[in-house]
Amino acid sequence: MAEIILYGIPNCDTVKKAQRWLGAHSVPYTFHNYKTSGIDKAKIAGWVKVAGWKQVLNIRSSTYKKLLQQGQPAITNAAAAIRLMMEYTSSIKRPILCIDDKIIVGFNEIDYIDTFKTTPYFSH
Question: What is the pTM of this model?
Answer without folding.
Answer: 0.90
